[in-house]
Amino acid sequence: MLFLLRRISSLSIATTSPLSYSAPLSRLNNMASINNNGSSSRLSVLAQQLRLYKPPPGDAEDDDEVVSQVGFAESATPVGNRPSERFRPKRAAVLICLFEGNNDGSGEDLRVILTKRSSTLSTHSGEVSLPGGKAEEDDTDDAYTATREAKEEIGLNPSLVNVVAVLEPFLSKHLLRVIPVIGILSDRSAFNPTPNVDEVDDVFDAPLEMFLKDENRRSEEREWMGDTYLIHYFDYKINGKSYLIWGLTAGILIRAASIVYKRPPAFIEQNPKFKVPGIANKDTTMP
């Protein structure tokens, strides 16, 4: 299965991101005031920084516009059999829930909550994903969608999550517009995962910084409409279990880690750079 990757060059992240940091994440402890809960203080500084983030221009509803510098253009879809049918993707949101784990200098102090989808689901069964799902009519915004779905899927109470940023839209294989929402979980001990067995087989966490490293990573070259690009796969083990994190989930986490740590990944992403007319068959999917 193919999920879509970023459009911009990874080498330009440090200079083009509108988010301005006063210091790298590794120095947040020195910036934070020293009190009885240094962890919460560091997260507070991170939250303040992430609130300054603004998605790059280009998130337009126009079929001829690029969704963002991260995802493909929403119009970058093959022309369908019914050219009169305009491409209007459905909306979804996922939660990038960050919390502090190991603070031993290993560089793995900031972690993200992930799920393994139920093997009984009709789509993407058994795959690793971020908590989230399709927007419902009564949802007030993308943050509401992401936190509501996280509660339904893994029992994460929205009151525990401090939403601090909304990233650029990604376009999934099934032409679903996916909005990543970054939230901070200050008190990890207050969250006791209770996965919905109909949707989730497992809940685990991984270090966010691993998505910038070239360790335990492999890639596969693909070609679409004459453009060559890479799909990235991250192999991860925790508590005796092995997980494969790839595609859309990996792409979103690479972008989130680049923003948080203010540096590009240590590998070449090789993303496609094309755009075609904004017309697609509703049954169209990417290869």
Order of helices and strands, N to C?
HHHEEEEHEEEEEEEH
How much of the residues is beta strand, in percent?
A: 25-35%
Let me know the largest β-sheet. 8 strands, mixed
The geometry reads as globular
Low-confidence stretches: 1-38, 59-84
Percent range of helical residues: 10-25%
End-to-end CA span: 7 Å
- Class per helix and strand makeup: alpha+beta
- Let me know the number of strands: 11
Provide the gyration radius in Å.
Answer: 18 Å
Q: Average the pLDDT over all residues and give the rounded result.
A: 75
Number of helices: 5
Any descriptors?
single chain, 287 residues, alpha+beta, eight-stranded mixed sheet, three-stranded antiparallel sheet, 5 helices, disordered N terminus, NUDIX_hydrolase-like_dom_sf, CoAse, hydrolase
Please, could you describe this protein's structure?
- The chain has 5 helices and 11 strands, in the order H-H-H-E-E-E-E-H-E-E-E-E-E-E-E-H.
- The longest helix is centred in the last third of the chain and has 15 residues, at 247-261.
- The N and C termini lie close together (7 Å).
- The chain has 287 residues and is of the alpha+beta class.
- The chain is globular.
- Helix content is 17%, strand content 26%.
- The protein has helices spanning 13-16, 28-31, 38-50, 142-154, 247-261, and strands spanning 91-100, 110-117, 128-129, 132-134, 161-166, 170-171, 177-185, 200-207, 217-224, 227-238, 241-246.
- Strands 1, 2, 3, 4, 5, 6, 7 and 8 form an 8-stranded mixed β-sheet that branches. Strands 9-10-11 form a 3-stranded antiparallel β-sheet.
